[in-house]
Design goal:
Length: about 140
């Protein structure tokens, strides 16, 4: 099992807009790279990892909105791999601080190495997408 973390802070133009976007499950799920189909809290992803094209299934397993925070958890599974992503967004005046933690379980080292690299990239892509939505 492997785990990692991304942390940062984004300066935003409109805090009300930010809260509205981050409080919307669909807007957050839209930032998951490769997402092909969404049905409620569940979704499918078609993702190319190394030389493999994988069909993965995902689910938003937790979604919590408070006055000054949004927290969520996403589970993504596929052949030989399980990725859990925990996101926490904290509103602090004109800033949004975020912490994204991910953990990866894989059935063998070949899958783990490829999925590990992909997990880091996916997390970075999600942050970039959210940042773009927040400042658009």
């Amino acid at each position: 099992m492997f785990s990692g973390e991304l942390m940062g802070r984004i300066e935003v133009k409109d805090v009300t807009k930010v809260k509205r976007i981050l409080s919307n499950k669909e807007a957050l799920m839209d930032c998951i790279p490769g997402i092909a189909k969404v049905s409620g809290d569940e979704f499918r992803i078609v993702k190319r990892i190394a030389f493999l094209t994988l069909a993965l299934t995902g689910r938003m397993t937790n979604f919590e909105v408070g006055e000054d925070y949004v927290r969520n958890q996403v589970e993504i599974t596929g052949p030989g791999v399980k990725l859990s992503v925990f996101s926490n967004f904290l509103f602090q005046g004109v800033f949004v601080s975020y912490t994204i933690r991910y953990s990866l379980e894989a059935s063998n080292s070949l899958i783990e190495n490829a999925a590990l690299k992909e997990s880091r990239e996916i997390s970075k892509d999600i942050v970039a997408c959210i940042q773009k939505k927040l400042n658009s």
